[in-house]
Amino acid sequence: MNQHALMFDKLVYLDRLKSAGVAEDVARAHADGLDQALRESVATKADVEVVERNLSKEVNSVEGRLNGKIEASERSIRAEINTLEQRLDAKVEAIDVKVDALDRKIERLEAKIDSVDLKLEAKIDSVDLKLETKIEALDHKFEAKIDALDHKLEAKIDALDHKFEAKIDALDHKLDAKIDALDRKLDAKIDALDHKLDASVARLEKEIAESQVTFTRWTVGTAIALTGVIWTIAKFVH
After folding, report:
1. Is the CA virtual torsion 69, 74, 75, 77 positive or negative?
2. What pLDDT, on a 0 to 100 scale, did the predictor assign at position 2?
3. Averaged pLDDT for residues 57-85
4. How far apart are alpha carbons 26 and 32 in whole angstroms?
5. Helix or strand holding residue 138 (H, E)
6. How far apart are CA 50 and CA 212, in angstroms?
């Protein structure tokens, strides 16, 4: 075999394997193995071609397996998606059925509610009429009773007015009689007092007159006595 030195770029080889669909760990293992082999001994171009053919076969085999797995996964996923779609369709249909049933129930309930509303309105109107009739009847009764009470109160008030007037008249007469009696008593007492005063005044006037006479006599006597005393003193002095 010809001994020609070959240049090997592990990174370029690794990228080619990865771009061909080989898993990164598998591609890295092949690239590391080939790089190690090339470092330990210098391979010929034929050796490298053999290695590349082997690697191509492995890559193709890996691609086939990967494609088979991918196709199987796609079929499984599609089957699961179909199953889910069928389940969802069944559930949606069941929900639609339930919704339709609910709509029908709601319609029946609305019809019942409308019927109940009509019945309630009719009953309310009937009750309103009955209440109005009863209220009017009660109003008439209360008005009649109030009128009767007014008449009774007016009659009682008139009777009380008459009684009070009669009592007031009687009291006026009694007061007039008492006042007249008091006037007479006062007149009698005043007359008696007048007589007493007249008698007292006459007595006082008499006593005053007697006192004046006595005083005059005493004054004259005193003057005479004083005159005699003065004369004696004057005579003694001379």
Report:
1. positive
2. 38
3. 80
4. 10
5. helix 45-237
6. 199
For residue 44, give the DSSP letter. Answer: P
Structure tokens at 42: 């210098």
The continuous run of DSSP H or E covering 158 comes out as: helix 45-237
Q: In the chain, what's the furthest Cα-to-Cα distance?
A: 225
From the list 56, 53, 55, 39, the residue with the least C-alpha distance to 5 is 39
How would residue 8 be classed by pLDDT, with cut points 50, 70 and 90? low
pTM (2 d.p.): 0.28
Can you tell me which residue has the tokens 């397996």? 65
- Quickly list DSSP for 173-193: HHHHHHHHHHHHHHHHHHHHH
Contacts of residue 20, defined as CB under 8 A and 6 or more positions apart, other chains included, come to 59, 63
Distance CA 67, CA 64 (A): 5
